[in-house]
Amino acid sequence: MVIMKKILLIFAVLALVASCGKNEEGKKPEIDLEEQLIGQWHSTSISVEGDIYIEFYQEKSFELYQQIGEGAYRLYRGTWNLEGDLLTGKYNDGEDWAAAYKVAIEGDVLTMTSQNDAAETSTYKKSDIPSEVKERCETVVKSR
Amino acid sequence: MKYRNLTIAAIVMMAAISCLNEKEPAAAPELSSKEELLMTKLTGGQNGEYMGGCLLLYLDEETTSRFENGEDVAAELFGSGEYTGFEKAISHKPKNEELARELGLHRWFIVTFDDMTPVRSFAANVAVRPEIHAIQFNSLPKPASDCKSIPFRPQVRLSSASDGKKIPFDDPMNSYQWNLNNTGDKNVAATAREGADVGVIDAWKLTAGSPDVIVAVCDAPVKYTHPDLAGSMWVNEAELNGVKGVDDDGNDYIDDIHGYNFYKRGGSNGAINWETETESGHGTHVAGIVAAVNGNGIGVSSVAGGSGKGDGVRLMCCQVFEGIYSDGDRGMSEALMYAADNGACIAQCSYGYPAGTFECDDAFINNASLEYRALKYFTNPKNCNHPSLEANIAIFAAGNESASISGYPGALPMCISVTAFGPDFLPAGYTNYGRGCNIAAPGGDLWVGALKEEDNISQILSTGLSEISGDYIWMQGSSMACPHMSGVAALGVSYAGKLGKKFTDNEFKTLLLTSVNDINQFLTEGGKSFKDMWINMQTYHNRMGTGAIDAWKLLMQIEGTPSAMVQTGKKSQVDLSEYFGEGAADLTYLAVEIDEEAKKTLGLASNPKITDGVLDIVCMKNGSAKIRISAIAGGVQLGGGNNIGGTEITREISIISRGVYSTNGGWF
């Protein structure tokens, strides 16, 4: 009988612990996708040989540092907008992004899938943009 | 009897001629006189100015060997009393003897004789000797400048650039150096144009030179004690620390601490000498444009004179002029060989034969055969002196005859020929242009200057020889344009070395000749004054080479070029100015090469085409592949053979075909 009681107690405690876990998960505040997007990202998988850094700013602007092929990073600036999980953008020269992107963020991994016929998927990881990338880009912009 | 001898000579010569390589003169047919025989052996030089009292002779291998074994072949060839001296044209032993022999340089001799004897007459007499395969008059190249200089004195204060750019060194005279940072100041010229310079300000953030890059200044003497040059001089440590009068480093030249004086075969012990009465300071000026010490708080700044930490490129003085005199082809040739043998990877040559002296490449190759072979020696990959290059680079001034062709040797495809523009970005009236010219650089233009002559600052300010100005002078000419190009090339080699990159000869020359700003945009209408004339700018359209050299663009290209992104399934246009410089629209393209595998990868149905510097391409598949595009740098036809023309340049471009495509090249 004592043994039964102990077993029941253990089950009760386990159940409580289990339910507490569920409650904790459930309580975890829903992080807004937009908030998650803000910050600096570095490409981990893109469709071509190259290297991309992007920073999404709170005030809906972005800085894109891209090196496709060889040579210095090129800096593009512009604005972005997120509706649901659909990300669109416009470069500062007035040109729209070539596609809208469906975004998903799991932990520190951002996945962007173009919503056009190409359905191109790229992944990025949260990562600081190295200062030398920023400095070199500055110079590219200034060059004659 | 004499006729019989001639006949025998002719037969022997015919046999000998059959052994000649293709660079040698054609065989003689029937001989009826000494003059006709001479014509079969004369490689030339007689069209321009040449030295009296001497001839260059190309002997057969057997006679050369006998001379090398100490036999007195001169007495046999010329008869006693007919000559005053006979020796190898290249008086010192080359380091790469095997290559020198392969090029036949060991078979060139110089015979000297009484100045009063007409050169042609002496040549006709010796032409009968079958041992003599070729005869060359010892031509006299000229500095590509009028060698007039104006001493520096503090002139008007100049304005700063609208974009805030300034030369980042504390050299007090550099505010006058519009060639390095043209602010468009109207005190320089009423027509001055901001940005009409060598584009080096941003480039200095990446490199301002490297001491392992040695530029041979083949010119008048460089005053190596000049306080703005001393720190940039190449130093032969073995000779510096050696015994005076002894060849301490065993290079066959005695006491060559900073270079050598090739005038009179190094007659004054090869000592570099700038104290002759007729010395203009031309070589010292040129040297200062390449690498006057930057950031030393005195004088001027320069293209590749370092960042103020003793890290600029090094200048090797190869003195080929002493005052207004030179040793002709012989001296130039030996200087180029010395430069190759002692570590120079760039030959900075602000001299040449006036435009028209040679009407095509073959004429130069045959008529200045010794110098051509010496150039081959300098640029042969076996003699390359920098790990980032496949071959050394020879850069020449285009010349100052206002002619529509380049002077030689610069016009050869193996050399780079540099034209000159003024502070207005327009061709200077004196510059040669057109066929054989490859690229433009600042050379100064007295005639557009805003101030009166003694205050004129539209020329180029650099180190020089002038007691009243502390050895700083203004000069102009394609002679001054040329060292800007050499300085930029030296920066490029420095940066390639810093990045650990290596380029083939064609790749590096292509980078040099495509790192340009467009000047054709200014050459569509209008004109400018030159002396008492008004010259029409349209005359120069697309005839100044590929464009105006830009140091920053060169360094960017050395870092690498971005791939060209195109949209899958649609006709795309790739602007080739990214790859061929701002003058891409005006270049003559030779071919677009793409192999079958690349075609499959990109899904190309037809070959891409180029129109006005834009590549039209249709890729039906996502993917990436490389294509090769070749073009002519300088003019619409290639040089070589009976032509005088441009140099072939080739770019390999990586094409990326994506379904996501922005016309501005952005990733998203």
List keywords for this structure.
heterodimer, A: alpha+beta, eight-stranded antiparallel beta barrel, 3 helices, B: 668 residues, alpha/beta, Immunoglobulin-like, 3 domains, seven-stranded parallel beta sheet, 16 helices
Written description of the protein model:
The complex is a heterodimer of chains A (144) and B (668). Chain A has three helices and eight strands; from the N terminus they run H-H-E-E-E-E-E-E-E-E-H. Chain A has 144 residues and is of the alpha+beta class. Chain A has a single domain (33-139), classed as Beta Barrel (Lipocalin), CATH 2.40.128.370. Chain B has three domains: 3-138, no CATH class; 150-556, Peptidase S8/S53 domain (Rossmann fold, 3-Layer(aba) Sandwich); 561-658, Immunoglobulin-like. Chain B contains 16 helices and 30 strands. In chain B, strand 18 (460-463) and strand 19 form a beta hairpin. Mean pLDDT of chain B is 89; it is low at 1-31. The chains are: A alpha+beta (144), B alpha/beta (668).
